[in-house]
Amino acid sequence: MLKNLKRFARNHWVQSKFLLAIKLSNTASPRIFYLMGLNKRFPNLGDQAQTAAIPLWFAKHFAWPVLQIKNDEVHQCLPILQRHIQAEDIVFLHSGGNFGDDWYQTQLDRETIIDALQNNPIIQLPQTVFYSDTASGKQALAQTQQVFAQHQQVLMFGRDQQSTALSQQLFPLVPVHARPDMVLSLHDYLQQHHAETFVSPVKPIRKVLLILRNDKEGVYQASDKQHLKQFLMELGFEVEIWDTDVDDIFTEQGRLNTLVKYLSYIASFDAVITDRYHGLIFSVLIKRPCVVLKTHNHKLTSAFDWFDQVNFTQRADTHDEINRALASLAKLTEYTAPNWNVQHFDPMANEVKTFLVARKQFHQTKAVLA
Description:
Blueprint: H1 2-24, E1 32-37, H2 45-61, E2 66-70, H3 74-84, E3 90-93, E4 96-100, H4 104-116, E5 122-130, H5 135-150, E6 154-158, H6 161-170, E7 176-178, H7 187-193, E8 207-211, H8 222-234, E9 238-242, H9 255-267, E10 271-274, H10 277-285, E11 290-292, H11 298-301, E12 313-315, H12 319-329, H13 340-369
Parallel strand pairs: 1-2, 1-3, 3-5, 4-5, 5-6, 6-7, 8-9, 8-10, 10-11, 11-12
Helix pairs in contact: 1-3, 4-5
């Protein structure tokens, strides 16, 4: 009973807080509703980094108030949003790697939102799209297709070229663009506020951090990780194994500082070997040589195409390939990478604005014809 009372009290507090935020923003038009971002105790560092990056992107490109519903608040707050959302308001859905049947409850939440908000534009921020070739995967896909076919105002971003092509095939009525993971947009923030922390002079590779998945998407068993660690140690490297699921608290005000704490830990190593997409992204942001391993889907391998202009990343699978990649990376005399905001996230904002203008013109024309 006590547990139920606590749950009731928390739900009431979440709903009251969201309703107050809506009422305080009622004079503004339009408003951004950013849905499915992470609560402060969600352990995945990559997802928390996206939750930190996206509001900065909003602030840079859209002079509109932003109201949030966290991933664990959707069911409490969505009915309130349905009652109070206005026609001009815009819904953005969190980015990441959970579009499909791998993390199906999250996908169901996404579809519930899209189904509930039929009269508002919905922007799906960059996602990896993957459905397993199973009976349950095909059933899940059929349901997603039905939800998307019924909503006429969705704009979608694939987080890699394969996800983009798949989305264009599966959702033919939805405009789809390809843009990389939004954590890369933190490049400017880190340069402005933490440049000294992440100064990255080229130096010998002695300390190597293995950032390897511990969840169901990982393909490496504990024994595989230990064998790789032992192999590298026999080559003379200092090696630690780590994952980006961390036991920490990411408050709204402190999320960026908490993220920087972990980036500083990664920066204490000379190179990274990883099967995590954000292991690669963190390495790129702080300019640490990175060797990228395979995963069970195209989340990382297809997304690796974004990093053609980064000279300090390489793909490898076998131990010998990893050794050769580290040797090659150790020969670099400088680390080069593009300006991610200029190349991708500024144009992405323009793609959103173009979509919203076209949507507005369509409804104006429809009203005149009626």
